[in-house]
Design goal:
about 1000 residues; alpha/beta; 7-stranded mixed β-sheet; 5-stranded mixed β-sheet; 28 helices
């Protein structure tokens, strides 16, 4: 009987060890497919670098210690907030507040400030400064009601954001504290801290879901299901605060707008509100800057980079903002694709969006329609500017006043030199931003050929400190090229028309329009506000020019239409589906009336929507014929002694790159292209080290991957609102320094940054507006250029994201984005153009969406025509996260100009088996060259001609070891089981 029990024991042990062995065996290929992500998450060592003792150090830190760097960064973040926060309302000079002011904070967000957004750009708030700490620092200890502070700490009410993965709009909650929750005992403390009721209104945004703009299911939680309107609890709070102010409990009501998504400001003239300060997302230490503004230690100088509205739904873009299913989507087996686990990622996204508003986004709409109303033209209707706009683009108050004089413009050929004197007419020193705007003529040619013109466009700015009573002279250069318009229908390039152009200096975009209206002799009774004709200059261009600006000033290549397939009125595959774009020639008649209804045609399916391999293979063959018609088989994996370190200072157009790249075997090249999830793979054949890459719209952050962060700066809109490019340069260099200081013990460096973001704020409701600078593409480009150049100055290659037309989160994985070429070029590409052509940016990150029906990374016009042929970009283009996104096909991507995939090849390795295809191999080598160029021109080359040895990461070694141990144990248990059974057969039972 004992022997039978022994047999059973070994049978059980054999079964257990065998099962564990099977698990280990299965785990090896499964984990190998996710190895890139696992290595990043575990910070696992994948290479051994034996440094070159004679290495040339190409990039040095400016700081003797990391402590010095951190101290400076904290001050810098404060200064960015100080100069970016915009004072919107200051009735009876409520601000600045006196020393010793006592505050009672209101709203749960006063305790839970918004420091940044969520998702890939999420920053750690563990070391962030609280509002209470900042106020105590600026006004003295015990400046904040301690009982109110403790109440918010324990009340249980807190904002809820949508999940980054698997999230949706319905998850958002404001969760403001109901007034009934404030006990009588708590209210009794308010009069002791009654100088100011300080209200913080915060709205969080993040990756993965746009903000709700009218969801019926959210009406119990927010007004009309709109996240950017005051909720009923906030309205109740303001009503009670107004009553308490009248009773003398509070002397002043001050509001902080803690959001990168502009709230609907239809309440700022109500509830006895005395002052309103927009602060955006404040980063780690920015709230100190806010407190210093309130205390008068700093004079506010920020200017709005978006039009702030009384009605957030009044813009033409809001009429079709969202994701809309093709009417026959079910016939083509499409599905939703909000997250990379949704069925529409493996199939095809069923959704689209149409940018029917054309160029009329933000102030380009509001100010242009306003001018046409004043002049009685363009069928503007009875347009009420003040009903829509609360504060115009470029607006911001100061604690002092400024006056302009001696406005001059000098034509210098390719540029204009604009001059103006600015006098500080107040009693305190202050910084002031001069904003230069231009207006181009809206002609009969434009009306006949569908060229649209905004009433004003920002074309120059500068910022200076001006002492009280002093005058400073500003000189700003305006590029004549910036006055051009893109004519997609006739000239099919940039044109500079004949006619009268106006220049003006304005305190904001609306003031700029009013100056021009006064110069035109407009009827003042129809105007909102006043203007000054003496602050304008009229330049008369005598000839129509369609030649000068039809070639790239960077590369000399011709510029012509590249996005006809994104315009439903030009793309033949759309068949009879034509749309009407908004035109200033007929505002009322062409204003969008809601989402455009579209269906999938057979051509649309075959041109890029199809998830069938046969259709994708056909596109690959078409691309090969179009873009590599004469491809011959290049040399691959040849023997040579060239190394990557030899190319640290080699220009991208040097022909010797071909010899270096030819040494790399095809398998190493595809491994590099396939597996770029937050890193680059080592390439042993040329000694190219692997690098780490990380997110960075607000600074170097690893929060998404579970790691720690470096300095977290303000949101990008606050950065842009400083209008101070010197500050942006300092910040960019510090971000680069953070990467420079992050080298691992194994020598692997953090060499690439996913950011900054250069999309625009098409509407206030985009979940990722905190990652983008402005509604204005030109301003975005100017700021991005300086930030990118500064980051790269520290040896970090930049992937400016998300390229392009990724201006919403809804339906983001492969949504079809339809627009026209003028809008694409003049609004949506300008931010990226500045980063590359002016900032020298080596890379971009392509976006999830399609342009028309073609994924951005496979759009040759975008990835090669724009990036390489027109802008001359030299480095690598990476995808957005490509994990399980089969529509981001490697073959189509490399043929179109995509280089590196932010993912891994599991189930997507479509370049495998094509090592004898001349076109594919040539495209693969081009991609590898671009990647190698970025890495060799980064601080990764500080190792010199080092030896790079690939290393199996510890977790794989552990898995292999566990598999071996399980195999041995299984064999041993099986042996003992067999022996036990034999013995049992040989002896009778007891």
């Amino acid at each position: 009987m004992k022997r039978k029990k022994g047999s059973k024991l070994w049978a059980v042990m054999t079964a257990i060890t065998a099962a564990l062995l099977v698990v280990c065996i299965i785990a090896i290929p499964v984990t190998s497919a996710f190895a890139t992500a696992i290595n990043v998450a575990l910070n696992a060592k994948t290479q051994e670098i034996v440094p070159d003792p004679n290495a040339t150090i190409y990039f040095w830190s400016d700081y003797e210690s990391e402590e010095d760097l951190v101290a400076y960064e904290k001050e810098l973040c404060e200064q960015i907030e100080e100069e970016g926060a915009a004072l919107l309302v200051n009735r009876d000079n409520t601000l600045p507040l006196a020393e010793g002011t006592k505050f009672t904070p209101f709203s749960q967000s006063s305790f839970n400030l918004l420091y940044g957004g969520t998702g890939s750009g999420q920053v750690s708030a563990n070391d962030a400064v609280s509002l209470k700490a900042a106020l105590d620092r600026a006004f003295g200890e015990d400046s904040v009601n301690p009982d109110q502070w403790k109440f918010y700490a324990t009340c249980g009410y807190q904002r809820v954001n949508a999940d980054t993965t698997g999230g949706n709009q319905t998850q958002y909650r404001i969760n403001e504290v109901p007034w009934s929750e404030y006990s009588d005992a708590l209210q009794a403390t308010w009069s002791n801290y009654g100088d100011v009721a300080l209200v913080v209104l915060a709205r969080s945004g993040g990756e993965g879901a746009d903000l709700p703009s009218g969801l019926p299911e959210l009406e119990p939680y927010m007004t009309d299901g709109d996240y950017l309107r005051l909720c009923k609890e906030e309205v109740e709070m303001f009503e009670n605060l107004e009553a308490l102010k009248e009773q003398g409990v509070f002397k002043k009501i001050v509001v902080l707008l803690n959001s990168s998504n502009s709230l609907q400001l239809d309440f700022v003239d109500d509830y006895g509100i005395d002052a309103v300060l927009w602060i955006g997302d404040v980063g780690m230490t920015g709230i100190n800057g806010v407190a210093d503004i309130l205390a008068g230690n700093v004079n506010p100088s920020g200017r709005l980079v978006d039009t702030f509205l009384r009605d957030n739904h009044s813009s033409p873009a809001m009429q079709n903002f969202g994701a809309y299913a093709y009417t026959n989507a079910a016939e083509y087996d499409t599905a939703t694709a909000q997250n990379n686990t949704d069925p529409g990622v493996a199939k095809c996204n069923q959704d689209y969006v149409v940018y029917q508003e054309g160029i009329y986004v933000g102030y380009r709409y509001y100010e242009t329609r306003y001018e046409d109303y004043v002049l009685g033209q363009g069928n503007a209707g009875e347009y009420d500017y003040n009903a829509d706009v609360a504060f115009p683009f470029g607006y911001g108050l100061s604690y002092t006043t400024f006056e302009y004089s001696n406005f001059t413009v000098e034509d210098q050929g390719d540029t204009f030199l604009v001059g103006v004197d600015v006098t500080n007419t107040g009693a305190v020193d202050g910084k002031h931003t001069v904003q230069i705007y231009f207006q181009s003529p809206y002609t009969q040619y434009d009306k006949d050929n569908g060229v649209e013109k905004a009433s004003v466009e920002l074309c120059g700015f500068d910022k200076k400190e001006i002492a009280a009573g002093a005058t400073e002279h500003f000189e700003i250069t305006v590029e004549k090229e910036d006055l051009t318009s893109y004519d997609a229908n006739n000239a099919r390039t940039y044109i500079l028309e004949d006619g009268d152009y106006y220049f003006t200096v304005g305190s904001d975009a609306h003031n700029a329009v009013n100056n021009i209206l006064m110069a035109k002799g407009a009827d003042e009774s129809r105007m909102s506000g006043s203007g000054d004709a003496s602050l304008t200059y009229k330049w008369s261009n005598t000839s129509f020019d369609a030649e000068t600006y039809s070639v790239s000033p960077v590369t000399g290549n011709p510029i012509t239409n590249l996005f006809d397939n994104a315009d439903l009125n030009k793309y033949e595959g759309a068949e009879d589906q034509q749309i009407t774009y908004l035109t200033r020639n007929d505002w009322v008649g062409t204003f969008p009336q809601g989402p455009v209804s579209l269906r999938i045609t057979e051509e649309m399916w075959k041109d890029g929507l199809s998830h069938n391999e046969a259709d994708r293979a056909a596109i690959v063959e078409e691309y090969k014929a179009l873009y590599y018609p004469d491809a011959t088989m290049p040399a691959v994996g040849v023997s040579g002694d060239l190394t990557a370190s030899m190319y640290a200072e080699t220009e991208a157009d040097d022909p010797s790159w071909d010899a270096l790249i030819s040494q790399i075997p095809y398998s190493e090249m595809t491994n590099l292209i396939y597996n770029g999830f937050h890193l680059t793979q080592p390439v042993p054949s040329i000694g190219l080290p692997g690098t780490n890459d990380e997110n960075g719209p607000q600074g170097f952050t690893k929060s998404l991957m579970g790691g720690s962060s470096a300095m977290a700066y303000t949101s990008e809109d606050v950065m842009a609102a400083t209008f101070n490019l010197e500050l942006i340069e300092s910040m960019g260099k510090c971000i680069g320094e953070d990467f420079l200081h992050a080298t691992g013990e194994d020598g692997t460096v953090y060499a690439g940054i996913y950011g900054p973001g250069a999309n625009i704020h098409r509407t206030p409701y985009c979940g990722r507006n905190f990652e983008y600078y402005s509604e204005d593409g030109w301003l975005s480009g100017k700021v991005a250029a300086v930030e990118v150049a500064a980051i790269q100055d520290r040896g970090v290659y930049v992937f400016t994201k998300h390229f392009a037309l990724n201006d919403q989160e809804e339906g983001r994985y492969g949504i079809s984005t339809w627009s026209n070429e003028q809008a694409i070029r003049e609004l949506y590409l300008e931010g990226f153009e500045g980063s590359v052509t002016e900032g020298g940016g080596m890379g971009v990150m392509s976006s999830f969406n399609r342009i028309g029906v073609v994924w951005t990374g496979a759009h040759h016009g975008l990835m090669t025509g724009i990036l390489r042929d027109e802008w001359g970009m030299k480095g690598a283009a990476i995808t957005d996260c490509s994990v399980m996104a089969n529509y981001m096909d490697y073959r189509m991507g490399v043929l179109a100009g995509q280089d590196l995939w932010d993912g891994y090849s599991m189930g997507m390795a479509t370049l495998d088996g094509l090592e004898n295809d001349p076109a594919i191999v040539t495209a693969v080598q081009n991609a590898v060259k671009h990647i190698a160029y970025s890495i060799t021109h980064s601080h990764a080359m500080n190792i010199g001609n080092a030896t790079v040895i690939p290393v199996t990461p510890w977790w794989q070694m552990a898995l292999y070891g566990a598999t071996g141990v399980m195999a041995v144990l299984t064999a041993l248990c099986a042996f003992l089981l067999v022996r036990s059974i034999r013995k049992a057969k040989q002896q009778p039972d007891d």
